[in-house]
Design a protein that fits this description.
The structure is a single chain. The protein is α/β, with parallel strands linked by helices. It has a single domain, classed as Peptidoglycan recognition protein-like (Lysozyme-like), CATH 3.40.80. The protein contains three helices and nine strands. The chain has a five-stranded mixed beta sheet, covered by helices on one side. It has a two-stranded antiparallel sheet with strand order 1-6. A two-stranded parallel ribbon has the order 3-8. Strand 4 and strand 5 form a beta hairpin. InterPro entries: Amidase/PGRP_sf, Amidase_domain. It comes from Paramuribaculum intestinale.
Length: about 150
Amino acid sequence: MAKLQYLVIHCTATPEGREVSAADIRRWHTSPAPAGRGWKQVGYTDLFHLDGRVERLVANNEDANVDPWEITNGAAGYNSISRHIVYAGGCDASMKPKDTRTAAQKEALRKYVLDFHTRHPSVKIVGHNQLAAKACPSFDVAAWLLEIGIKQ
């Protein structure tokens, strides 16, 4: 068990407007290669659907620790100290990075992050791209946090 240090925001890197299911994510992450990545666990705790629904993918007791059964595979080197969340989307039709969050996703993400920050004010909230050379989550998390009133 480790102290929770990061909330990492991801995108599914799928085209704008395409819904993603929990089953899709499980298949992408846990199926053996070459169909999937062959991981023991998915990469995210929660999935933000296009309509703003938030679906829990991995059980979490919401405390300030990352228990072994809560570890997801979102960012190499950070998994044991992070919670990872993901929104469906993040690419345009040609698969280039684009902030494709719907109004409902933006609102659901805003509520989730504000609640999370209230409960865990010392946890750093970052985009995946702040931990690895990636475009994910296809928007500037630091600027967005300021917009919603979170200073880190």
